[in-house]
């Protein structure tokens, strides 16, 4: 790892992490089935005001990580290990009611599908004021102008009318804006966005991303961006964690990661993006195979069967996560 | 557990109805154009589809006529339904039932009371029993369903085992048993007996759709905002689970009317025949069924038409609210 230059973090971020996740593991157990470890010893930090990306394919454990931090995994059938300390409090050990008080106030989350994330039988206004009533102790009447202002701030035109509307009367982009308004209603210090643009049109995606960026910069909210889309990472994140098979395989600042990807998986993700400036008819270079080909991490590198440059040790020994500063890498034979 | 087992079949039917609510409400939601006038709820958009359904209009028409008749029947009935006005014509040997005549278009019953008036006023009893039995059954079923669906775990297991036991007894038999236990049969015992049969149906239905809501995206999203458990149950889960229950209650109205008629027919109903009731009239007509079948046919027709009206209304309501069955 000597050739990995550690660039100092952007100076505007404080040094004490806001959220510090250590050795987070989530194992699902179903009767009559082998236990399945979806997240396997994940550690990362989020500093105040920082935007951190969790990147990976479907099934790599990025959503489960966020649900575990939020305490939103189903109460039965899973084991969560490790710690997630938020301003010094371990969220994973908090009693359910204390965690409920923090959700929406200190930490908020927005989800992938804005339509199904809104209650179809309750007007948008009521869903926004509900959060204000809950966490800021406002009466519904007092919350009304605040809700209007929130919708206005996330760029929903004619907010007075939209407050009375039901979710199905809003367009996809407006729905996601409304959800962002709810998430930011109590000025949380951390926002987790789980693929917030995946269900939206490309043009709307860009709008939502720039809105998120703007709000995060204005309010100083830290953002954990969960995505499979490296374009989103390039536009938004300060620091990126690449997940594979429930483990972090590479970490770096955005610039390092894009300029100098070391893990073959990161490299493959970058290479599989179609380029507008590439030669016409130049073939795309996908990563072969699928997540289903994974080896167990116990005695091998899970990515080995799909790797472009495997060596013998890859199927014999678990690669350790070698860290130096922000940069981290889990690979026996990294890309030079 | 063969599919022919009536117990299993009934449970499956209930679960199928509950699944209606489980299917993402997107189906309904997408139907509403994005730019309607503000504040058009899903109920409103379902209503706009219902208005164009001939089946619904027929069912609603029958129901409306029945309800209006029941309300105004004491005013429009030509005679007092309890007065034996044609009693002097009744000859137990030669002419037990006076036939149609001037002022008595359908004739009289074996006690000389005007048949038309009895049918008209009888609609009142039928409506009262049907509506109150449904409301009582709904209240009981909703309470149990909310309990099971909101708490889950052992509460759910306990409630659902009780419900399963109730469902395993054939519904009419259960109603008969409850009515028969009552020391003095009356309208109230009929209502309780008929309602008790519906409680497990409503409970299972609501519990099924609440469980589906529990893991739905918008409930998880509400949880992510720290919404209290109480608000999650009553604002986010319950209203989204009610569609199949609303549908079921219109169907239950029909079933309650039939069940109540069956109880009266067997003499387990209100013994006071100064208050005419269709099932009771049907029961009394048995003695004369070969010679004077009209005594049975008129009340039977009334029961059939009213039950049909509620059923048509319920089925079209179900179709309007169920995205899967929409064409």
Keywords:
heterodimer, A: 336 residues, 8-stranded mixed beta sheet, 10 helices, 30% helix, B: 327 residues, mainly alpha, 12 helices, 0% strand
Model description:
Chain B: Belongs to the binding-protein-dependent transport system permease family. The complex is a heterodimer of chains A (336) and B (327). With 336 residues, chain A is an alpha/beta fold. Chain A has a domain at 119-187. Chain A is built from ten helices and twelve strands. In chain A, the strands form two sheets. In chain A, strands 6-7-8-3-9-10-12-11 form an eight-stranded mixed sheet, sandwiched between helices. In chain A, 48% of the residues are buried. By secondary structure, chain B is mainly alpha-helical. Chain B has helices at 6-22, 26-31, 42-50, 54-76, 115-151, 153-168, 171-181, 187-214, 217-224, 229-265, 278-284, 294-321. The longest helix of chain B is centred in the middle third of the chain and has 37 residues, at 115-151.
- In the predicted model, the low-confidence regions of chain A spanning at least 5 consecutive residues are 1-13
Average pLDDT metric of chain A: 87
Radius of gyration of chain B: 23 Å
Mean pLDDT of chain B: 81
Helix content of chain A: 25-40%
Give the termini distance of chain B in whole angstroms.
33 Å
Main interface: chain pair and counts: A-B, 39 and 34 residues
Tally of helical runs of chain A: 10
Number of β-strand runs of chain B = 0
Cα(first) to Cα(last) distance of chain A is: 11 Å
Beta-strand percent range of chain B: under 5%
Unreliable stretches of chain B (pLDDT < 50, length at least 5) are 24-36
Global morphology of chain A: globular
Q: What share of residues of chain B is helical?
A: 55-70%
**Helix- and strand-based class of chain A?**
alpha/beta
Oligomer: heterodimer
Characterize the biggest β-sheet of chain A. 8 strands, mixed
How many H/I helical runs of chain B?
12
Please tell me what the overall shape of chain B is: elongated
Subcellular location (chain B): Cell membrane
Transmembrane segments (chain B): 55-77, 127-155, 162-182, 188-206, 245-268, 296-317
Protein name (chain B): ABC transporter permease
Keywords (chain B): Cell membrane, Membrane, Transmembrane, Transmembrane helix, Transport
């Amino acid at each position: 790892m000597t050739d990995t230059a550690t660039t100092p973090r952007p100076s505007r971020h404080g040094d004490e992490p806001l959220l510090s996740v250590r050795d987070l593991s989530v194992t699902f157990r179903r009767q009559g089935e082998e236990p399945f470890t979806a997240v396997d010893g994940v550690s990362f930090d989020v500093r105040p005001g920082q935007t951190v990306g969790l990147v990976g394919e479907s099934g790599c454990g990025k959503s489960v990580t966020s649900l575990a931090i939020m305490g939103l995994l189903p109460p039965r059938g899973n084991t969560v290990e490790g710690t997630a300390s938020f301003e010094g409090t371990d969220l994973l050990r908090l009693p359910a009611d204390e965690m409920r008080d923090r959700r929406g106030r200190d930490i908020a989350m927005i989800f992938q599908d804005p339509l199904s994330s809104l209650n179809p039988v309750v007007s948008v206004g009521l869903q926004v004021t509900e959060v204000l009533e809950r966490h800021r102790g406002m009466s519904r009447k007092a919350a009304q102008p605040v809700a209007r202002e929130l919708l206005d701030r996330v760029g929903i035109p004619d907010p007075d009318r939209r407050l009375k509307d039901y979710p199905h009367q809003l367009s996809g982009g407006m729905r996601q804006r409304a959800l962002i308004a709810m998430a930011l209603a109590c000025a949380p210090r951390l926002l987790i966005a789980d693929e917030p643009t995946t269900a939206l049109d490309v043009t709307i995606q860009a709008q939502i991303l720039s809105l998120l960026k703007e709000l995060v910069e204005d309010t100083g909210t830290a953002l954990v961006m969960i995505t499979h889309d490296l374009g989103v990472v390039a536009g938004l994140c300060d620091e990126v964690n690449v997940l594979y098979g429930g483990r972090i395989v590479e970490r770096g600042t955005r610039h390092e990661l894009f300029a100098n990807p070391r893990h073959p998986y990161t490299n493959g993700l970058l290479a599989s993006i179609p380029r507008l400036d590439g030669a016409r008819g130049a073939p795309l270079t996908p990563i072969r195979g699928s997540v289903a080909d994974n080896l167990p991490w116990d005695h091998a590198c899970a990515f080995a069967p799909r790797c472009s440059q495997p060596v013998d040790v890859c199927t014999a020994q678990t690669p350790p996560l070698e860290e130096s500063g922000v940069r981290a890498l889990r690979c026996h034979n990294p890309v030079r | 557990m063969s599919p022919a087992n009536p117990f299993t079949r009934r449970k499956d039917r209930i679960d199928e109805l509950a699944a209606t609510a489980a299917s993402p409400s997107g189906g309904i939601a997408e139907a509403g154009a994005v730019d309607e006038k503000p504040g058009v709820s899903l109920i409103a958009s379902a209503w706009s589809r219902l208005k164009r359904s001939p089946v619904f209009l027929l069912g609603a028409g029958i129901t409306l006529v029945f309800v209006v008749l029941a309300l105004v029947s004491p005013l429009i009935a030509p005679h007092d339904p309890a007065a034996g006005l044609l009693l002097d014509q009744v000859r137990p040997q030669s002419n037990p039932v006076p036939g149609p005549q001037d002022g008595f278009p359908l004739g009289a019953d074996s006690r000389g009371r005007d048949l038309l008036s009895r049918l008209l006023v009888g609609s009142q009893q039928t409506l009262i029993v049907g509506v109150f039995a449904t409301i009582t059954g709904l209240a009981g079923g909703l309470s149990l369903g909310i309990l099971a669906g909101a708490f889950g775990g052992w509460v759910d297991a306990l409630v659902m085992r009780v419900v399963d036991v109730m469902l395993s007894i054939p519904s009419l038999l259960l109603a008969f048993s409850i009515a028969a236990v009552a020391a003095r049969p009356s309208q109230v015992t009929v209502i309780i007996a008929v309602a008790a049969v519906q409680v497990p149906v409503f409970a299972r239905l609501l519990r099924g759709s609440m469980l589906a809501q529990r893991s739905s995206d918008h409930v998880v999203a509400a949880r992510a905002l720290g919404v209290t458990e109480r608000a999650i149950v009553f604002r986010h889960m319950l209203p989204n689970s009610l569609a199949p229950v609303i549908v079921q209650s219109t169907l239950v109205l029909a079933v309650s009317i039939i069940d109540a008629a069956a109880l009266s027919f067997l003499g387990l109903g209100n013994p006071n025949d100064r208050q005419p009731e269709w099932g009771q009239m049907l029961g009394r007509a048995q003695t004369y069924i070969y010679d004077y079948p009209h005594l049975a046919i008129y009340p039977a027709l009334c029961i059939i038409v009213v039950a049909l009206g509620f059923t048509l209304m319920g089925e079209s309501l179900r179709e309007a609210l169920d995205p899967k069955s929409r064409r």
